[in-house]
């Protein structure tokens, strides 16, 4: 009996050992698949950089990624949520369903040759990958492919969904996809973002409403018959004055900023049309709603006071990123397994030149890992907003950053556009491909991780269903295609 028990214990420990080994072998195999995709990671990164298409005009970029995924055997849904450049690529069947986000849009006006100083692109393209979405799109698509190949060879059950999400820079793509239920039915979503540091993302992003207010008046001669005029610009100025008084009564976490894209044509013409464009942000969605309501009252008051009429239009709105601790921990472990980009001496020298040109300390690219602090929930918000936040309120979501630009150079600038079109940027994208692939394997095969992620999600959302910040019937406004 004793012997039998011992034998049984030995057998059990043997099985566990084999499983642990198998697990690591599986991850090794997945990593190999990802590494083998290096030429394609570079190629797609480069082509998306060449295109550098801005929000909702990413026709060539979307087609490039769609074609690669189709060729690989993914099932494609195109023209999703009313956006011709939004798509979903699916492989496999059944649970779990793991999503990967891929962005690819560029920023207007920041295009630069891939050189360590400011120089307009020789091909005349003015837009640029100042946020590195060329690398984002390439790495995510390649990770989906590495996962698909590993799943096929190792007969792993489940579904991979690659989401082609356009117009992140205008905080639009995922907002409308979320509103249309495109992210429903997922078990978890992973994402990454180019950065100047390496590590899992733990900071708060800000919830936001982006809206414009148009005022309409009556034009007249500014000096000859001003009594016939009603100034639309007065409406804008009166509104801004009201909002600026309100500033003293908002929370320390609230941020309000505006520009006046239209304020009239000439001083001697009373403007019959003026427009002001606002962002209201806060760490909490509820606070954004609260001050948005007050600003709407201020706009109404301004129109009454200036005898003008007005029209307010909500362009887009997002939540604050809902972080998922079990997934963050899994990602951090995978970053440690993969390691940070191994920049060459030439690449580091190039990075220092770029930093010098941008007036920053010549420190090169970061190669250390910024660890997630224990009290990460207390870290102050970074200030930006992202439409990934919408996904994070629908399903457990987590992401990370990889150094793709030298430390300290201004983001969304000519400098980052340049770096994201070089071998150093592509090196970062390859690391991201690998980390996404390993985390995908974890989520597909580690039931405990997925359960923990779901429990954490339920706790943070209080079990409440996702509610879009936009009115149900609001449709995307597509830009005029050139
Ligand atoms: Zn970005």
Q: How many helical elements?
A: 13
Radius of gyration: 25 Å
Task: Provide the list of bound ligands, each named once.
Answer: zinc ion
Which percent range describes the beta-strand content? 15-25%
- Largest sheet strand order: 1-2-4-3-5-11-6
Q: How many strands in all?
A: 11
In CATH, the homologous superfamily of the largest domain goes by the name Zn peptidases
Query: Which CATH class of the largest domain applies here?
Result: Alpha Beta
Give a verbal description of the structure.
This protein is of the alpha/beta class and 482 residues long. It has two domains: 21-203 and 321-461, Aminopeptidase, CATH 3.40.630.10; 207-318, Alpha-Beta Plaits. 42% of the residues lie in helices and 16% in strands. It has 13 helices and eleven strands. It has helices at residues 2-36, 38-51, 59-71, 133-154, 173-179, 232-246, 285-305, 325-338, 345-357, 388-392, 414-419, 423-445, 447-461, and strands spanning 75-78, 87-93, 97-102, 158-164, 188-195, 199-200, 207-216, 255-262, 273-282, 309-318, 397-403. The strands form two sheets. The chain has a seven-stranded mixed beta sheet. It has a four-stranded antiparallel beta sheet with strand order 8-9-7-10. The protein is globular, with a radius of gyration of 25 Å. Mean pLDDT is 94; it is low at 1-23.
List keywords for this structure.
482 residues; alpha/beta; Aminopeptidase; Alpha-Beta Plaits; 2 domains; 7-stranded mixed beta sheet; 4-stranded antiparallel beta sheet; 13 helices; globular; disordered N terminus; binds zinc ion
């Amino acid at each position: 009996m004793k012997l039998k028990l011992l034998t049984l214990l030995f057998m059990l420990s043997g099985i566990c050992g084999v499983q642990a080994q198998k697990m690591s072998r599986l991850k090794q195999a997945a990593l190999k698949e990802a590494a083998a995709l290096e030429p394609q990671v570079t190629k797609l990164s480069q082509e998306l950089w060449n295109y550098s298409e801005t929000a909702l005009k990413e026709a060539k970029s979307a087609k490039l990624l769609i074609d690669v995924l189709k060729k690989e055997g993914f099932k494609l849904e195109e023209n999703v949520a009313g956006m011709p450049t939004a798509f979903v690529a699916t492989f496999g069947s059944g649970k779990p369903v793991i999503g990967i986000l891929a962005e690819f849009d560029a920023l207007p006006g920041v295009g630069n040759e891939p050189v360590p100083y400011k120089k307009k692109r020789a091909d005349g393209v003015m837009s640029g990958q100042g946020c590195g979405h060329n690398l984002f799109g390439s790495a995510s698509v390649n990770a989906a492919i590495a996962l698909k190949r590993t799943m096929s060879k190792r007969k792993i059950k489940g579904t991979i969904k690659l989401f082609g999400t356009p117009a992140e820079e205008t905080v639009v793509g995922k907002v409308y996809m979320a509103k249309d239920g495109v992210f429903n039915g997922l078990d978890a979503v992973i994402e990454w973002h180019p950065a100047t540091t390496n590590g899992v993302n733990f900071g708060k992003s800000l919830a936001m409403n982006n809206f414009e207010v148009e005022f309409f008046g009556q034009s007249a001669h500014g000096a000859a018959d001003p009594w016939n005029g009603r100034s639309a610009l007065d409406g804008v100025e009166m509104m801004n004055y009201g909002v600026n008084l309100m500033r003293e009564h908002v929370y320390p976490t609230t941020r309000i900023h505006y520009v006046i894209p239209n304020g009239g044509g000439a001083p001697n013409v009373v403007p019959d049309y003026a427009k002001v464009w606002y962002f209201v942000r806060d760490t909490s969605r509820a606070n954004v709603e609260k001050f948005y309501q007050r600003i709407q009252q201020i706009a109404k008051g301004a129109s009454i006071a200036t005898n003008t009429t007005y029209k307010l239009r909500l362009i887009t709105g997002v939540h604050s990123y809902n972080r998922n601790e079990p997934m963050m921990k899994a990602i951090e472990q995978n970053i440690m397994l993969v390691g940070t980009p191994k920049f060459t001496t030439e690449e580091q020298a190039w990075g220092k030149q770029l930093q010098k040109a941008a007036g920053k300390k010549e420190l090169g690219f970061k190669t250390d890992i910024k660890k997630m602090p224990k009290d990460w929930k207390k870290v102050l918000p970074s200030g930006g907003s992202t439409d990934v936040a919408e996904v994070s309120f629908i399903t457990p979501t987590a992401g990370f950053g990889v150094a793709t630009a030298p430390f300290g150079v201004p983001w969304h600038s000519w400098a980052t556009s340049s770096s994201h079109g070089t071998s150093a940027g592509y090196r970062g994208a390859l690391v991201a491909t690998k980390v996404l692939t390993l985390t995908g394997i974890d989520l597909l095969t580690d039931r405990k991780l997925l359960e923990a992620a779901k429990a954490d999600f339920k706790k943070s959302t209080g079990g409440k269903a996702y509610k879009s910040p936009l009115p149900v019937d609001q449709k995307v406004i597509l830009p005029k295609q050139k």
